[in-house]
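=== RUN LOG ===
request id: a7f3
mode: sequence -> structure
chains: 1
length: 331
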Amino acid sequence: MVLDWSPLRKLIAECSDILVLTHMRPDGDAVGSCVALALLLQEMGCRVKIGLDGPCPANLQFLQPQDFISSVSELVVAEASGIVVVDTGTWNQVGTAAPILRTPGRKIVVIDHHRTQDDLGGDRILDVTAEAAAVLVARFYGAVERVPSPDAATALFVGLASDTGWFRHPNCVSTSFEMAARLMRAGANPSAIHEKLYSGESLARQRVKGHILSTMKVLADGRVGVFKVLQSDLARMGANAEEALGGMVDLPRQVAGVRVAVALYEHSDGGTRASLRSDGTVDVATICATHGGGGHRPAAGCTLSVSPDRAEEILMADLVSVLDQDARVTR
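=== RESULT ===
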């Protein structure tokens, strides 16, 4: 897909101070894409800050070669006349950055690969066929004829690997490996990256994983795996939610026969955050969209203003309906 980069080029030309934002609970693609874009914008003469909704996850902090990642609440953003939003295009995902985006007079460009989109008040560069936001940022490097530095190549590799499940998910295509090869030639070291991302996990995270494995349920005739993590569980295990829960949603999919994994996390202020993963045959983005969320066909999420038990009932009803209809069609 050919993308029109003129809105981003125009923003760079008109704004010397740029703020890069992403979604709440940032993952490897969000942070990696932001870092790689920020490094390129600096090369092009801009002053750049990255604003996250909360602290940078501990296992991703190695990505910032400079100290330009801050919590949105800590930023002084009055001078940032340009804003680039990466890896999301919805109000319910920008979190504490929403007031910044609603400030009049800011030039805004969204770079995203998710189907679910709102009007954030600016231009949008969108490719829903891209396997990661990092793919789009890498294309912009090509559009401006720049080669990623080793730091930028590492950040882009993290984004690509994270959103393709280290090249295991259905969204991984031949060009994913071609991009990975280019990034390796530019200085990315997959072995070292994997070590930094996944080794040295805290004892609390290991305890959370054990809790999930021991309490997980397999429902809908073995087609759906569900687990719940409550605030009381985190307190008992001495775990921080953002650090301990990342990536856990994939655990049920390791059970034979499970087509959809459902992870339900109790919010500290009430309600339930749901993350869904499928084998690609079930469109979980459509299900999450009916509850105000979104994402991709095999990976999506939403927040429900009910308890985890009630959220399980609601989502299971949706999933069983879809799975049973699929079973009838394939008979």
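=== NOTES ===
The domain at 203-330 is CATH 3.10.310.30 (Diaminopimelate Epimerase; Chain A, domain 1).
The longest strand covers residues 260-266.
=== END ===
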